[in-house]
Amino acid sequence: MPLNGPQFRSFAARCSRGKVENSLLPFLAHTANEGWSCDLNNVFLRLTLDLNCTLVSGVNPGCLAIGSPVVPSFARAMDDALETLFLRHITPATCWKLMKRLEVGQEKKMAVSQRTIDSFVTATIEKCRAHKLKECISNLADLLPSFICSEDTSHNDDVCLRDTMVNLLVVGRDGTGVALSWFFYLISKNPHVKQKLLDELAPIASKKVAARPNSGMVTFDASELNSLVYMHAALCECLRP
Fold first, then answer.
1. What is the average per-residue pLDDT within 5-10?
2. Which range of residues forms the domain containing residue 19?
3. What is the CA radius of gyration of the chain?
4. What's the CA gap between 144 and 174, in Å, rounded?
5. Does residue 64 contact residue 27 with C-beta atoms inside 8 Å?
6. Selection from 49, 74, 82 nearest residue 176 by Cα
7. What is the CATH number of the domain that holds 63?
8. HSE (side-chain half, CA atoms, 13 Å) at 77
9. How many whole angstroms separate alpha carbon 36 and alpha carbon 34?
C-alpha cells in the first residue's frame, strides 16, 4: 500500500485525530490539573511513537496513558541506538568497531538495544502473521498487514519486514516529534504568531464548540485545515533549514 494512497492517508488522518482527542489532550489536561511541569518534547515523542506504531503495525503502546507512564523498553532502546549511532560519527572507526566486536562501552548498549528492538518487531510480525492465518487482513489500512499480504514475496521476508518497520518507526517518531517541539518553541517565542494562528483557527473552532458545547476540547480534521494559509506558512517556516 503506497504511503500517499487515499486509503492510508485517510487512515492516518483518523488515527491522528483519535490519538490527539483520546490521548494527547486528556494527558495534557491531567498534567495541568495536577500542576505538574511538562516536557513537550518528551510528550510529542510519546505521541508520535504511539501514532506511528498504530499506523505501521496496528499496535498501540499506550505511551500517553494518564499518569506519566514509563516509556516502553523498546522506545528507550531506540533512543539508546540513535545515541550510539551519533557517537560513532565522532569516534574513530577503528575504536567503535573494536568496541562493537567486544560489546563494551557504548557499543554494549547498542547490542542490547538491537536485541530489544528486534524482539518487539519480531513479536509484532508474528502476531500479524497469526492474524492473517485466521482471516484475510489485506483490507486493513496499517502498513504491516499490507506488506504481509503482498503478492511480492520480497516484501514478506522477515528481515525486510523488520528493517522496514524499524525505519518507519524511527523516522516517523523522531522526525515528527522534533518538528512539533520546534514549532511550539518558536510559537512560544513569537506571541504575535501565536495570536494570528488562534485568529485563523477561531472560525472553525467556534462552529465546533457550537455543535458540541459540552465537549470542553476542540480537535480538527485535516481537511478542515487545508485552507489555513498562515498556519501552512508557519509550519513551512518551522521546517526551513
1. 76
2. 6-189
3. 20
4. 20
5. yes
6. 49
7. 1.10.630.10
8. 18
9. 6
